[in-house]
Design brief:
The protein contains eleven helices and ten strands. The chain is of the alpha/beta class. Strands 7-6-8-5-9 form a five-stranded mixed sheet. The chain has a three-stranded antiparallel sheet with strand order 3-10-4, sandwiched between helices. The chain is globular.
Length: 294
C-alpha cells in the first residue's frame, strides 16, 4: 500500500474500467466504485459493482487505486463514490487514540469520528483483521502464543509488512506502545501478499503482518498470535461513501451485500481469487447470483 501522499497525486487504476482517478465526477446517476490495491478489497468492490448494476444503476469501476490515505481524499473530492473499507483502520485514520475494540463499539466510534462529508453504511459480519503471524517452528522456539509473548524476544526478530505498517496505530506504533516490543528490523514487503508470505516461510522474516481471511495461514499451519491488548481493533467490512453520492436504492443494494457476507464466506471466496486464480469479477458475480442479489 502506498504511503501517505502529499500534494497532487495521480493514481493508476490497474485492471479497472478507468485508467486513473480524475476526469468524471461521481453522481447519484453514476456510481464510481473503487477498491484499495489488494485482492480481497477488489473482490468486495466487484460485489458492490455487480449488485448496483443489477438494480439498473450506472457503475464505473476504478480498482486497485492505492491505500486509504489516497482513496479517502478521492471520495471527498467526488472522484469516486464508494469503496469497501474496514471499520477499525478507518476509525484509527480519523482518531489515532481510539480505544474501541468490539465490532459495535468501533462502528459507533467511527460514525462519530468521520468528517461530515464522509459516511458509512451498515457494517458486515465479515471481518478481516491484521494479525501478527509466525511459523510453527518460530512459535515453538520462542514459546509464542500471543503478541505479549514477543516482548522479551522482539529485539531478536525481523518483522515484515507493507510500507504503511510502521507509522500506524494498528501497526508498529501500537505494538511498541502497548507491548513494549521493538523488533530487530522492519522489512517493507507487500500488503499481506506473496512477498510477505514467502519471506516468512523462508525465515527471511520471523514475524509477518497477514490478514485473518488469508487461506495461506491454515494451508501452511501458521500461528496467529493473540492480541490481548487490542492493537488490532475489529475490522468489519463497511462501504465508505461521500455524503449525497448514493441514492437510497444504491444504499439498500450495498447494505444487502454487507448483510449477506460473513467471514467464512469471504475467506472461501478469496481463496478462489488468490489460490485458484479466478478473476475477482467472476467470483463476485457467482456469489451474488447464489445469494439472489442479482
Amino acid at each position: 500500500m502506498a504511503l501517505l501522499a502529499t500534494g497532487a497525486v495521480v493514481l493508476t487504476a490497474c485492471g479497472s474500467s478507468s485508467d486513473a482517478l480524475g476526469g468524471g465526477q461521481a453522481t447519484q446517476d453514476k456510481v464510481i466504485v473503487a477498491s484499495a490495491n489488494f485482492p480481497e478489497n477488489e473482490l468486495i468492490a466487484e460485489m458492490y459493482a455487480g449488485a448496483l448494476e443489477s438494480a439498473g444503476i450506472t457503475v464505473e469501476k476504478k480498482l486497485n487505486i492505492g491505500a486509504r490515505e489516497l482513496y479517502v481524499p478521492a471520495i471527498q473530492n467526488g472522484e469516486i463514490s464508494v469503496v469497501p473499507d474496514y471499520t477499525g483502520n478507518l476509525l484509527l485514520l480519523e482518531d489515532t487514540k481510539a480505544t474501541a475494540a468490539s465490532s459495535a463499539d468501533v462502528y459507533t466510534a467511527l460514525k462519530a469520528a468521520l468528517p461530515a462529508d464522509l459516511k458509512v453504511l451498515d457494517y458486515s459480519p465479515a471481518e478481516d483483521k491484521d494479525a501478527l503471524v509466525v511459523t510453527p517452528a518460530i512459535a515453538a522456539q520462542y514459546k509464542l502464543k500471543s503478541i505479549e509473548d514477543l516482548t522479551p524476544v522482539c529485539s531478536q526478530l525481523v518483522v515484515g509488512a507493507s510500507a504503511s505498517f510502521p507509522p500506524r496505530q494498528a501497526g508498529l506504533v501500537g505494538i511498541t506502545e502497548k507491548y513494549s516490543c521493538t523488533f530487530k528490523e522492519f522489512r517493507s514487503l507487500d500488503t499481506g501478499g506473496p512477498l510477505t508470505l514467502n519471506a516468512l516461510l523462508n525465515n527471511d522474516i520471523q514475524v509477518a503482518d497477514l490478514y485473518t481471511t488469508d487461506s495461506n495461514i491454515p494451508d501452511n499451519n501458521l500461528v496467529v498470535l493473540e492480541d490481548p491488548k487490542n492493537v488490532f481493533p475489529a475490522q468489519n467490512v463497511v462501504p465508505l461513501y461521500k455524503d449525497g453520492s448514493l441514492s437510497d436504492a444504491a444504499k439498500q443494494k450495498l447494505n444487502d451485500v454487507s448483510k449477506a457476507l460473513d467471514t467464512a464466506t469471504l475467506t472461501t471466496l478469496l481463496r478462489q481469487v488468490t489460490t485458484d486464480k479466478m478473476p475477482a469479477q467472476t467470483v463476485a458475480m457467482k456469489w451474488l447470483k447464489d445469494k439472489g442479489l442479482v
